[in-house]
Amino acid sequence: MQLVRNFRLGSYHDVGLIGSISHRKFSCARHSLSQKRIEAVIIGPPGSGKGTISSRIVKDFQLDHLSSGDILRSHIQKKTDFGNKIAPIVTSGQLVPFELLAPLMEHETKSSKSPSGWLLDGYPRSLQQTERLHKTSAPNVTIYLNVPFATIIDRIKSRWVHIASGRVYNLDFNPPKVPFKDDVTNEPLDQRDDDKPESVRKRLEVYQSMVDPVLKFYRDKKLLIEFSGTESNVIWPEVKKFLAQFQKV
Ligand code: AMP
Predict the structure, then answer these.
(1) What is the pLDDT of residues 174-198, one digit of tens each?
(2) CA 93 – ligand 1 centroid, Å
(3) Which of 8, 51, 56, 137 has the fewest Cβ atoms within 10 angstroms?
(4) Which parts of the sequence bind GTP (predicted)?
(5) What confidence score (pLDDT) does residue 181 get?
(6) What is this structure's pTM?
(7) Mean pLDDT of 114-129
């Protein structure tokens, strides 16, 4: 299949399938081409490769990586007043209340030091957070990694662990020497309940219902750029090419 590379901005544009990646562009703000700073949000389900793509973006474009999860964990580790307050919420896997998190993330964007801009990761993830962010530090692009659930489920399904040591194997990329046996002890490997297909599917469905209104918000504002594909190494060059336009004047 021919590789279509067309990052013309300004109007709705559906590029269709490109090998294993497709990206659908909604008219990204016209002025982006003349802007140097990137003020971006990245959205993608757990297991979509968001971590990999985010770290490549911040490295290649010298952006501040504003990951809500990392910022919250750092407060907890440093035992700040804020950290002590949110620790029980974060450790039990619940969402940090809007009134606590929104001012923190607003402060993070406003105090970001990188002249190239910032990448918000993990925030916003509700409509309320999105609307507030738009009033205080509106992003100029939202990158959505649309990786099929089936791909994510398949990937996580291949993860097996040796519970006692915590050694993790992947049957596709990092298989044990003897199938389903730990390399060191030869004991049987297990699959975490969380990694079983049904649990992963449920987690993904909960995630999707939470971010759908966020995606709609950015799509309506013509700020959503969607990258669909199954492999980070294929998606990444397209993301990079797209973002590179911001730094060309
Ligand atoms: P993460 O590393 O993105 O999985 O986030 C870790 C934890 O931080 C989550 O389980 C929540 O408790 C909290 N958190 C991170 N981002 C948000 C958010 N946008 N809204 C509410 N809570 C959040």
Answers:
(1) 999 999 999 999 999 999 998 999 9
(2) 8
(3) 8
(4) 47-52, 159, 168-169, 232
(5) 97
(6) 0.84
(7) 96
Phi-psi region of 179 (alpha: psi -120 to 50; beta: other; left: phi over 0): beta
88 Cβ contact list (under 8 Å, min separation 6): none
Task: Tell me, yes or no, whether 21 lies in a domain.
Answer: no
Find out whether 95 is annotated in a ligand binding site: yes
Average pLDDT, the chain: 87
The pLDDT value recorded for residue 249 is 56
- Is there a domain that residue 116 lies in? yes
Nearest CA residue ID for atom 3, ligand 1: 69
Known binder of ligand: residue 96? yes
User: Residue 212 is part of a domain; what is its CATH number?
Assistant: 3.40.50.300
Judge if the beta carbon of residue 96 lies within 6 A of ligand 1: yes
Q: Is the dihedral of CA 62, 67, 73, 79 positive or negative?
A: positive
Nearest atom of ligand 1 to the alpha carbon of 129: 19
What total number of domains does the chain contain?
Answer: 1
Identify which of 199, 63, 65 has the alpha carbon closest to the alpha carbon of residue 120: 65
Centre of ligand 1 to C-alpha 119, Å, is: 16
Q: Which range marks the domain in which residue 79 is found? A: 36-242
Predicted pLDDT of residue 79: 97
Pairing relation of β-strands 159-162 and 13-18?
A: unpaired
Please give the Cα distance from 159 to 82 (Å, whole number): 35
Is residue 201 assigned to a domain?
yes
Q: Is the CB of 207 under 6 A from ligand 1?
A: no
Distance 13 CA to ligand 1 centre (A): 33
Task: Provide the pLDDT for residue 36.
Answer: 80
pLDDT of 12 strictly over 50: no
How close is the Cα of 200 to the center of ligand 1, in Å? 18
